[in-house]
């Protein structure tokens, strides 16, 4: 891996020099835009909407559009003069229980590696944080953006997870939250039974990206001049008459799938292979809890 940032964790009077690495990478199949007739790559030009001239990259700047439509042009010097106290620091602000940080705030994950001179204080903070059972709330500036983040320990290494700011989280203002949607006790019991039947220890290796595998198979077939084999689409089962029947059938299907899985069959978990039937019946009204969006 190649580091993308160098700085230091600032923890009280302790400074820990570290390097930052991306902890994740996308595995999607990459495509280029091409001309359908001959496969030639499509190129785009940077053209100014005012004079119609092509603009070299060296003359491209960032602009902020005002409500009036006017554009404020910002230069690299404008960004360089911004007061980012955390430009090369990861400032530890506080420590807090991990469950108090809603995962919706997380944006991207990074690994932190200590520089040679920072190994001992790195291990000291790592072990102390791990024993505390908490996460560190920190502030860091990356790519001209200051972010909150958390520090936690994973496999002996600090993982820094950048966070969105509170005003970047949308409020789920959905009409049904203000409605008195009612659920019958039998439906709730059956739903809980389905959850219990499908419960288990999470192992991401149990699942696969079926779409990506099928897409790669299509590409490989075209490269080798073979006939493209269309993946089989499982037949849809008839929909249950009502919600309770759908839940009951789902529980039975999950139990059968789990029994088959225990019989030695590998691959994906049964619950992922056989989804619950959809209900086309009328919604059942039963007293439940209504809540308004925050």
Structural notes for this entry:
The protein has 294 residues and is α+β, with helices and mostly antiparallel strands. 24% of the residues lie in helices and 23% in strands. It has helices at 76-80, 119-132, 185-198, 210-224, 243-262, 270-273; strands at residues 5-11, 14-22, 62-65, 71-74, 89-97, 106-114, 134-142, 145-154, 157-163. Strands 1-2-6-9-8-7-5 form a 7-stranded mixed β-barrel. A two-stranded antiparallel ribbon has the order 3-4. Helix 3 runs parallel beside helix 5 (243-262). The longest helix has 20 residues, at 243-262. The model is unreliable at 264-294 (pLDDT under 50). Homodimer. Interacts with LigD. Residues 52-180 form the Ku domain. With LigD forms a non-homologous end joining (NHEJ) DNA repair enzyme, which repairs dsDNA breaks with reduced fidelity. Binds linear dsDNA with 5'- and 3'- overhangs but not closed circular dsDNA nor ssDNA. Recruits and stimulates the ligase activity of LigD. Belongs to the prokaryotic Ku family.
Strand order of the largest sheet: 1-2-6-9-8-7-5
Helix content: 10-25%
Content of β-strand: 15-25%
Morphology call: extended
Output the CATH topology of the domain at 5-27 and 83-168: Ku70, Chain: A, Domain 2
What's the CATH first level of the domain at 5-27 and 83-168? Answer: Mainly Beta
Rounded to an integer, what's the Rg over CA atoms?
Answer: 27 Å
Question: What is the straight-line distance between the termini?
Answer: 42 Å
**Number of discrete helical segments:** 6
Name the average pLDDT: 85
Low-confidence stretches: 264-294
H and E string? EEEEHEEHEEEHHHH
Structural category: alpha+beta
Got a strand count?
9
- Major β-sheet annotation: 7 strands, mixed, barrel
| CATH arch. level architecture of the domain at 5-27 and 83-168 | Beta Barrel
Biased composition (Basic residues): 277-294
Subunit structure: Homodimer. Interacts with LigD.
GO biological process, one term: double-strand break repair via nonhomologous end joining
Biased composition (Basic and acidic residues): 253-276
